[in-house]
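Sequence only, no structure available. Ideas?
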Amino acid sequence: MNHLAKTLLAVALLLGPIAHAEYEHFEGEWRLKPSSTNDVTPAHRLPVVLLAMTHAAQTAAGGDEGTAIKEWSVIGEANAGTEAEAVSILERARLHAARHEFETATELIDDLYARHSSFANFGEAVKLQFEIANRLAAGERRKLGGWFPWFRDPQGAVALWQKTLRLAPNGPYADECLIRTARLGLDGGNDAKTIEALERLVSDYPTSKFAAEGLEMLATMRSKESLGPAWDQATTIEAADHWRTLAEQFPNDPRAKQAIEQIALLRDRAARARLNLAKFYFFDRNNPEAAKLMANACRNIAPESAASKEAEELLARIQKDPNPPKGFADRLLGTVPRPRPAAEAKPQAVGGDLDTLGFKKEEPKSATGGDRR
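Reply:
I predicted one. Tokens follow.
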């Protein structure tokens, strides 16, 4: 390949992404964007198409949305498969959204994505769908036929936020879709949906401006799942971890001060659960070894907590006297037997008693011996 051919090929590769039909609304008129190519067939029809697009836009601006929708439909049908059709679908979706015909608008956005996935202004369609979801969540009513008000459906916004997230997971509205889903779920009492959205927010979008809020909501919900020291503390530890993440990653956030207080409170709760077990093993089961294990676990979870101080006092008491005080039931029925140490629990060697039962071990006989029959 000669140098001229290489140069032309390089220019073609550079201009390839630009050489695509793209329209823009500029100073009240539609025009072909500079540096883009015409995809209208035949090419001499382009001025007519642009004139029709401008007229439809002016009709909509004049308040006659119904007529504008019809004009955009004609433009789309006459230019099927081209960028002009994609523009007509998006403009119709905007007009239907303005008339509160949200279902029709979202169906048109789906059609746009299915038929024109490489549409240059597809981000505008994603933005429109996001705005429709926000309007539903705010309590706006659908209008049948553009005039008859229907029931409010705030929960219908969740499906649109999820669809927006699928269409543009790395787009500018992805993290906001998740936090709005969580807020709406929290208001509606849908804890499962709220936690799912929050966990995805803090894991997939850790630098989001909503991450601190998401961590706070998630930590608060997790801490409420534990009913106290007498119950399982897995969610308590998880809540403390979320608060710690908030304090470490967002030290200047107003929530950071609250996070430090909550961490101390939650870790004390988790430590007190171990302390309660230590007391149970010592006072109710006469098992000082198990009690010491639980008391030490309490100290490891939250060394500076009030529960840890009580655990130290219990350990000192066991060290001084491993026998728990006897209550009325102990004096009446006797003390609970103390578990044997592990060394005593090992199986003992079996004597010759089993020989009488037919388990006597005999010496193997020779295969060539004289007693073989």
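Confidence is low (pLDDT under 50) at residues 1-19.
Hope that gets you unstuck.
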